[in-house]
Amino acid sequence: MAIDPEPIEPLACGRDAAQVWDHAVAGTLDEHERTCPHCRAAAADALGLDGVVHRFAAQRPTPPPTVLDAVLGSVRDLVAAELRPQDLIPLDSPEGPARLARPAAARVLRHLVDGMEGVRARSCRVGTTGVTMTVTARFGVDLASVTARVRQMVVAAAEQTLGLPVGRVDITVVDLWEEDPWRA
Amino acid sequence: MARVIFGDAAVARIAAAVAAEVPGVESLRPDLSQALLGLVGAEPVRGATAAVREGRAEVVLTVVTTLGHNPRDLCVAVQRAVAERLRRETGLVATVTVTVADILL
Lengths: 184, 105
Prior knowledge:
Chain A is of the alpha+beta class.
């Protein structure tokens, strides 16, 4: 998959989200990155993903009864769950053909973006050339930073949690929401 | 000289058992025909099929994993484990195709 040649927009403070991300993971954030709200949000994203990768890998959850559910479920559900060839993304394996179901990949990316501060994922499509995602953002969150952060999350999550190199990442902020003052 | 020949179902069952033991594999997922056979009381190998021809085996596995296990690395691990066990136990050279059908959140 070709790397997107277009320049990638920086965070609102001018820093590159990917660099801040690397510094956060390596624990080498500089003075600006520790204090700037845009950089701190990007650093929080990085640590959030890092936590997910290590926490879940360490867990050994009991298998849910998905096989039994599938068999006892209606025939219609079974037909709906059947994977068609176009639903599969090839994975890079030296040992033979390996594929990942597209809907599962999209669900993981949506889930991780949902965990980010000030952003909620709406739709996500994992295509052959890249990822197309729509998100909503909280009112008052810097929108340029949001797209840079979401892009960085998608690229890093695709590689670290899916094993999928991602070329192009298109993000559309489709709506804004206001924090419910009664819930705080 | 006597010859032991391994049938498709035997190879599929070995492959399924090996795959289920690989860390990160939560379960194997039956395809539609396997699930329907299961509904009528038959015992198909769930999530694994195999075709054996002249010392070679084509194995196809469908697995479910959880978030935190990299599907690419998981596929490689399953392919290695299954091919190695089949080579040792049956002498067959196996091509193993792995599909990660779902990632549990």
